[in-house]
Design brief:
- The complex is a heterodimer of chains A (about 260) and B (about 500).
- In chain A, helix 8 packs parallel to helix 9.
- Helices cover about 35% and strands about 25% of the residues of chain A.
- The longest helix of chain A has 14 residues.
- Chain A has about 260 residues and is α/β, with parallel strands linked by helices.
- Chain A has an eight-stranded mixed β-sheet with strand order 3-2-4-5-1-6-7-8, with helices on both faces.
- Chain B has about 500 residues and is of the alpha+beta class.
- Helices cover about 30% and strands about 30% of the residues of chain B.
- Chain B contains 14 helices and 20 strands.
- The longest helix of chain B is centred in the middle third of the chain and has 21 residues.
- The chains are: A alpha/beta (about 260), B alpha+beta (about 500).
- The interface between A and B is large, with 81 and 68 residues.
- Strand 3 of chain A pairs antiparallel with strand 13 of chain B.
Chain lengths: ~260, ~500
């Protein structure tokens, strides 16, 4: 019995976090399983799950994990990365690093093996640059709508298909078209229902109260090297947490990008 | 020993029609053949038969008996699709099937003993299968096609002819059962023969010498021996549903209502065969003449009738037929559906069918070339790009850690490039860009400029693409990539850093 318990403990050690399992899941535990569970030591018993419990625990654990963008200042600002099931808005005028943040998020997600979507209202996506930025193009779905209404509709449909990261970029200047505020609320609910991390990149705030957090990108300055002949080496941008449902707003950080 | 099953649908033209219009099942309906005064009843529902309608009556006679009789003409499209559906039911039970048309299908069940307890259980499964597709079938099982066919025609279905008992089974039956369409039965009647058994008891050579080759075949058949073996058919390359409409349709909604039922039947048939639809073809017959054909290629095989209906709707809205529709046929090209193995510990896998239907809907709404996988293209010009079908590889079994980001500066390209005017100046012997002028927001003095970098592509062409690229940062904000090209040195902003 001790050997069995040890094997079970090893088997389920992969569930690192303590799963919050509801007591007495109906109809999933047979008498023999219950007897076996009762005969185990407390430390082992807490980790032993049946298949249904394990799937639920893993799904919950995955849901609680944020999706990192691997840009440490940005992830820290949001408390670990893009939260799954939430809508995050990054607003900033031209050349404020929004596009680079989106590319970094897509590169991180696809490098983890997740399929991701880039809804490109501004039609500014370049596959060559995306690949050099580390995006696995095979796992990326590129959608090029012409109007904001189509873009929002596409995000809603594609999030419902089960993608874990959807990035909506509305372009660098005037957004083409308008959608009612309720559309953003519906997007946020779809993301929540599907556990999708939804990043909205806009030149000015659009999502209103529907988003979990709003990050403003400002004061971007290029970094240039050389005296007589200048070479662009990167860019620095100031990020401010304008709104967050669980974190104190007003926090600021400097995000630096370098040219490839 | 060979065992042959015959699936037989009595009054097939009526059954096929009721399959396409199930609302008429409880009504007094007659199927008529011929036009004008030649129109005569060939089949009628039970409700009509109880009122005295039977086959052979002219339509005028039938209407005089029952004025509220619903008359429908024979619909070849309905009958063909019903026959295909019946064949598919047989295919679920045996790979060797012979299509005899008009609601008759033979199939060989030799070797099926391990799957079914006995022949009666198998025959019951065949009847239930036909019932599931809306066709009331009868079933007969025997060692020969003829005996199986005659057994299937008997009212108490299923009828199982015992092994080696074909001759005994046929013997008491009247000769008209043997070949109802032939006059030979009348000739044999004149000889004083009334039953199949009496014919079988005659010497074969005597019958053949008087009736020729036909007599020999009849004698074989009377003894329960098939003159021709079962001839299996090849698997169909496509699935088809359709029907002729009672009156021309001019609006989309009523047509989609009918097409929806046809798609439901089509997906049920695909599912029964383990297939999914990879390409949908719609052919509309127009009034007074002409056809309107549309083909919809699905990004991945699907069996979702709702999605197919949505795609049909969107396609017909974009490409209306332009004339009233009097008949339609929908063809589904089959393919194996994609399967996904879900992982407990890896990233969530996308459902292939759900993904395919979503992408198909998006393509139909946003247009071709708007949805897909981005692809790199060989070359030197920065604006090159390609798009392919999105077919992601399966996710890893265990979730990987994200690759550490280098914090690279990305570039947002402008399609098409924005034409601008540029003011240059000389500083320390170097050319610099002093200001950018345009009608839009790309207007202002330049804080820093960097360049030029030269790109040339297609040097072997008469007019190669030769460009000089510059990076500029405007005083009012914004870092852009610009180029100067062409014989008249036209300037463009082609992308924005950030």
């Amino acid at each position: 019995m001790v050997a069995t318990a040890h094997a079970l403990a090893l088997q389920f050690r992969i569930v690192e976090a303590e799963p919050e399992i509801e007591e007495g899941l109906p109809g999933v535990e047979r008498d023999e399983v219950r007897q076996l569970r009762d005969s185990l030591r407390e430390t082992v018993k807490a980790r032993v799950l049946n298949g249904t419990e394990l799937i639920k625990a893993l799904a919950q654990r995955q849901r609680n994990q944020a999706l990192p963008t691997t840009l440490p200042p940005f992830d820290t600002l949001l408390g670990g990365g893009l939260p799954r099931g939430k809508m995050i808005e990054v607003a900033g005028r031209r050349s404020t690093g929004r596009f680079s943040i989106a590319m970094a998020a897509l590169a991180a997600a696809t490098s983890m093996g997740e399929a991701a979507v880039f809804v490109d209202l501004g039609d500014g996506f370049d596959p060559q640059i995306a690949e050099s930025n580390g995006i696995d193009l095979r796992r990326l779905l590129w959608i090029r709508p012409k109007k904001l209404k189509d873009a929002v509709m596409a995000v809603e449909m594609i999030a419902a298909a089960g993608f874990q990261l959807v990035v909506l970029d509305t372009g660098s200047h005037q957004v083409k078209g308008r959608v009612p505020d309720a559309a953003w609320v519906r997007l946020a609910r779809t993301a929540e229902a599907q556990g999708t991390a939804l990043l909205v990149s806009t030149p000015y705030p659009l999502t209103g109260t529907a988003s979990e957090a709003v990050v403003a990108a400002r004061k971007a300055r290029g970094k240039w090297a050389g005296d007589a002949v200048k070479v662009l080496t990167g860019m620095a941008v100031e990020l401010t947490l304008e709104k967050h449902r669980h974190l104190r707003p007003g926090r600021q950080t400097i995000l630096t990008f370098t040219t490839p | 020993m060979t065992r042959i099953v015959c699936l037989y649908v009595p009054m097939f033209p009526l059954a096929a029609r009721l399959r396409s219009e199930p609302d008429l099942r409880e009504e007094a309906v007659a199927i008529v053949e011929g036009n004008g005064s030649n129109a005569h009843v060939i089949a009628a529902t039970r409700r009509a038969r109880t009122k005295g309608i039977h086959s052979g009556l002219s339509l005028a006679q039938a209407r005089s008996i029952l004025p509220k009789l619903i008359a429908r003409g024979r619909d070849p499209e309905c009958e063909r699709t019903a026959q295909e559906a019946l064949l598919e039911v047989a295919e679920t039970l045996s790979p060797r099937i012979e299509d005899c048309g008009d609601g008759v299908v033979f199939f060989d069940i030799s070797g099926m003993e391990r799957h079914f307890k006995d022949d009666r259980e198998l025959a019951g499964a065949a009847i239930r299968g036909a019932d599931a597709i809306g066709l009331p079938a009868r079933c007969g099982v025997a060692a020969s096609k003829l005996a199986a066919r005659i057994a299937a025609e008997l009212p108490k279905s299923p009828v199982i002819v015992p092994r080696d008992g074909e001759a005994e089974f046929l013997a008491p039956l009247p000769l008209t059962r043997l070949a109802p369409a032939l006059d030979a039965a009348a000739t044999l009647g004149k000889w004083g023969l009334t039953s199949i058994g009496e014919l079988a008891s005659l010497p074969e050579s005597e019958v053949a010498s008087r009736l020729g080759e036909l007599g020999r075949e009849l004698h074989y058949a009377a003894r329960g021996i098939d003159p021709r073996p079962l001839m299996p058919r090849a698997l169909p390359p496509e699935f088809r549903e359709g029907m002729e409409l009672e009156w021309p349709l001019v609006a989309l909604e009523p047509f989609l209502f009918i097409a929806s039922a046809a798609l439901d039947r089509l997906t049920a048939r695909l599912e029964a065969q383990g297939f999914a639809c990879t390409r949908l073809e719609l052919t509309l017959t127009l009034e007074p003449d002409g056809f309107h054909s549309r083909a919809i290629v699905l990004p991945a095989p699907t069996r979702d009738a709702k999605t197919m209906l949505t795609l049909l709707r969107l396609d017909l809205e974009k490409h209306p037929p332009g004339a009233p529709v009097v008949a339609f046929s929908i063809v589904a090209h089959p393919d194996r559906p994609r399967r996904a193995q879900l992982s407990l510990f890896g990233p969530a896998a996308l459902s292939p069918e759900k993904l395919a239907t979503t992408i198909a809907k998006l393509i139909s709404i946003l247009g071709e070339g708007s949805v897909g996988m981005p692809m790199t293209v060989d070359g030197h010009l920065p604006e090159r790009h390609g798009m392919g079908a999105f077919d992601p590889p399966p996710p890893p079994d265990v979730r990987r850690k994200p690759r550490k980001s280098r914090g690279l500066l990305a570039v947002r390209v402008f399609r098409p490039p924005v034409p601008v005017e540029v003011l240059t100046r000389m500083k320390d012997g170097e050319t610099q860009i002093a200001a950018v002028r345009s009608d839009g927001e790309w207007n202002g003095d330049v804080r820093v400029s960097s360049g030029p970098w030269q790109i040339e592509e297609g040097w072997w062409k008469e007019a190669p693409d030769a460009r000089e690229y510059w990076d500029v940062e405007l005083v009012r904000g914004g870092i852009y990539r610009m180029y100067c090209a062409g014989p008249d040195k036209q300037w463009f902003i082609d992308s924005e850093y950030g």
